Amino acid sequence: DAKTTQPPSMDCAEGRAANLPCNHSTISGNEYVYWYRQIHSQGPQYIIHGLKNNETNEMASLIITEDRKSSTLILPHATLRDTAVYYCIVRPPSIYNQGGKLIFGQGTELSVKP
Amino acid sequence: DAGVIQSPRHEVTEMGQEVTLRCKPISGHDYLFWYRQTMMRGLELLIYFNNNVPIDDSGMPEDRFSAKMPNASFSTLKIQPSEPRDSAVYFCASSRTGVVEKLFFGSGTQLSVL
User: Fold this and answer.
1) Which residues contact A9 (CB under 8 A, 6 or more apart)?
2) What is the pLDDT of residues B40-75, one digit of tens each?
3) Within the 71-90 window of chain A, which residues sit less than 8 Å (CB to CB) from chain B?
């Protein structure tokens, strides 16, 4: 699976957009980008995933560059409850290999401040 | 749906004792994952099952660790004998075929081995 690089920490003002970057320069053609977050003392929570088109759901937007070597997770109006560690994971879908094994890196610790 | 249910939430035991952690996946999910989280090593995948069959146990640290899934609604992770370095938060997660990478995590079991 492709390796990802994320900044260890970021700050964001409440109400502003939080833009969390992820580099995955070795991504291959069938690999998807997945984002999870983990709020303190809770289990990780799925946010969004995509292959090459931009994706949006009720939680966030995912912007993937045309060359697919990097992506950005956007929380459009961050709140204090969005303070969490955000994980970017790259892997092929389970149809290409056995199972859905997800390997979590160190992630980005996002602090949303009043 | 109640989500993934783990028990106990907290477990304190003495070195050498047997520890059993329990997990009930979301009904209809056919994948089950056990993860361990520590400050030093982050989130580590220990083992995962598909249709109650262990698929990949390469993350299980030692023979002291064993996991079973006797039916679709129950799984256990057992440590025998336990050691202080096993202290961690243990998470169970489940997902279903078609969206295997969209994991739903439980609240975790905080294990302390004295």
Assistant:
1) A108, A109, A110, A111
2) 999 999 999 999 999 999 999 889 999 999 999 999
3) none
